[in-house]
Amino acid sequence: MTQSNNRKENQSHVRVVVELDANPVGFVNLDIDRLWPLINHRSHDNVPVEWMDAAKFDSFMRAAVIKRLVSRLEPHLYQALGDEIVKAELDVETFTLKAEAAAQAFGRTRAEIEELVAETDNTPLDFYSFFWDYLLDDRDVIDLKKEWKARCTLTQ
What we know:
A hairpin with a 2-residue loop joins strand 1 and strand 2 (23-31). The chain folds into 2 domains: 1-44, no CATH class; 46-155, no CATH class. The model is unreliable at 1-7 (pLDDT under 50). It is built from 6 helices and 2 strands, in the order H-E-E-H-H-H-H-H. By secondary structure, it is mainly α. It has helices at residues 3-10, 32-39, 54-106, 110-119, 124-136, 144-155; strands at residues 13-20, 23-31. Helix 3 (54-106) crosses helix 5. It has a two-stranded antiparallel sheet with strand order 1-2.
């Protein structure tokens, strides 16, 4: 076994799994090896009693402290997640409205898109690239057809 594998196995993490319909959709990892020095900055102190195994005490203390930390973080995580979900809902609404605007400007069918790109000597891939860039761009586009034509002249 290589040293990098040993190091990876020895790293401590608390992993918060975010699931949707019983499927993991994301993770939040807390690297305990990075947090522990911030929590226990007096690591040079000895075990409070001689008769206790120092390694076992440190392991038990670390586990108990991290468990309490996670339980105190939980309500804050729910609050933060709730705030971010509201923003994500707004993202869904924005993407839907932008897609509707594109449908009104260019048509709703593939045939209409194929006709549009044929008029400009572009490919459907060029149009879909334009569409995704438009969806992901934060700026407001007033005239989509004008933007499309401007992009077409840049690529020619």
